[in-house]
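Design job #97: recover the sequence.
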């Protein structure tokens, strides 16, 4: 039976979770948050806190431009608007992600094409992307799932050969590093989330970053200024359908305070995730997600491992539930992250052959199903994750978490 799912504010969903492991909530808030919010209030809403945050975040990443938004979902929508994608244009997208990755594309009637993950990985590669490039492809949208960074150099090389833009969805990888370079600087533009549960949790918020002046200008015009222009003696006109996806001032104040503490937290996440993965790898039948050599800072947002289904007498779902019951709240499967399977809205459109899946603007028939991304499907079938991993973990928590998984594994071996 399908039930309506009401998106709960994540803190509400996680508040009831207790146990011996640290919970991200209540979040650690940067010491200057109150001061910055007070500045907004004392100014009578006259200061530009969003601009201050944008400049600070751009400087922290070493990029020219940052555009504050209410979340990553709107940031990626702004990006689609800023790049002037047309209905029927294609963007190649990571197969495993959150709906927020594609909402902006769908709103602009851009067609997402999902490239498969590499075997044993949650991310795609240049090799899985390449066969999907057509004359309609405009961009590649890379999701650094769980904080594991895509191998960006070959992806950029491929994009260059075909004159494509490269975007990063950095929601789960804030301040991670690839060969010494920060995520968000590895393509033409990138989007971040600062929602309550994310690594730089600030209740709500997001941004897009870029070094491309044209993308930046169009993003402001289309995404912040509602595409408005002033006509003398008349006033505002709207030559295009624009949006007002601005980051609220008080959100910007909290984001600014979180930015001041997040980089130390990411170093802690890196250390603890690597330790935990090492401990999990020692358990027969358990394979933690692989951390590539090129990833020199692992801004891990979610711990994930696969189980060897043949080694256990319970199903993967039962295994996850037992791990949760044994003391890791939130542990469980996450098959819904397989976008080509979960986007029923697209499956329906294709079936009915409606806009933009009618021809034109589409130039061919599309298929959205798990079978189009067999590697992504296969890893998620045996995948267990907990997104309650956070920077509060200490080595003893890693030992404890690994021992919980070990106990469940030992109790359920064939
Ligand atoms: C990979 C990814 N992209 C996009 C989003 C959407 O972010 P936001 O809630 O800031 O719109 C999320 C949120 O979970 C995410 O994990």
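Job complete. Output follows.
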């Amino acid at each position: 039976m399908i039930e309506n799912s009401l998106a709960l504010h994540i803190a509400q969903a996680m508040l009831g979770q207790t146990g011996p492991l640290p919970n991200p909530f209540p979040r650690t808030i940067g010491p200057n948050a109150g001061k910055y919010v007070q500045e907004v209030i004392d100014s009578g809403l006259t200061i530009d806190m969003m601009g201050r945050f944008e400049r600070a975040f751009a400087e922290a990443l070493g990029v020219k431009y940052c555009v504050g938004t209410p979340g990553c979902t709107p940031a990626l929508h702004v990006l689609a608007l800023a790049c002037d994608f047309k209905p029927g244009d294609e963007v190649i997208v990571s197969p495993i992600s959150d709906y927020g990755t594609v909402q902006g594309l769908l709103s602009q009637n851009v067609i997402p094409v999902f490239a498969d993950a590499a075997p044993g990985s949650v991310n795609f590669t240049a090799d899985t992307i390449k066969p999907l490039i057509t004359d309609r492809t405009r961009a590649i949208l890379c999701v650094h799932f769980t904080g594991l960074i895509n191998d960006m150099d070959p992806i950029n090389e491929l994009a260059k050969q075909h004159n494509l833009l490269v975007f990063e969805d950095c929601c789960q990888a804030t301040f991670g590093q690839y060969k010494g370079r920060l995520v968000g600087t590895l393509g033409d533009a990138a989007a971040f989330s600062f929602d309550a549960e994310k690594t730089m949790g600030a209740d709500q918020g997001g941004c897009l970053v870029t070094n491309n002046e044209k993308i930046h200008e169009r993003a402001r015009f289309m995404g912040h200024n509602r595409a408005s222009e002033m006509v003398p003696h008349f006033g505002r006109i709207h030559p295009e359908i624009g949006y007002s996806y601005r980051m609220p001032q008080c959100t910007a104040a909290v984001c600014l305070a979180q930015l001041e503490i997040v980089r130390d937290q990411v170093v802690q996440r890196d250390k603890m995730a690597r330790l935990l993965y090492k401990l999990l790898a020692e358990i027969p039948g358990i394979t933690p997600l692989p951390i590539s050599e090129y990833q020199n800072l692992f801004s891990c947002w979610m711990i994930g491992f696969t189980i060897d289904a043949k080694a256990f007498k319970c199903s993967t779902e039962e295994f996850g539930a037992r791990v949760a019951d044994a003391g890791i709240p939130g542990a469980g499967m996450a098959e819904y992250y397989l976008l080509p399977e979960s986007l029923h809205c697209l499956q329906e459109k294709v079936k009915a052959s409606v806009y933009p899946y009618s021809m034109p603007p589409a130039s061919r028939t599309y298929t959205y199903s798990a079978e189009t991304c067999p590697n992504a499907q296969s890893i998620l079938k045996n995948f267990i994750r907990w997104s309650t991993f956070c920077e509060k973990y200490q080595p003893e928590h890693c030992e404890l978490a690994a021992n919980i998984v070990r106990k469940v594994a030992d109790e359920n071996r064939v």
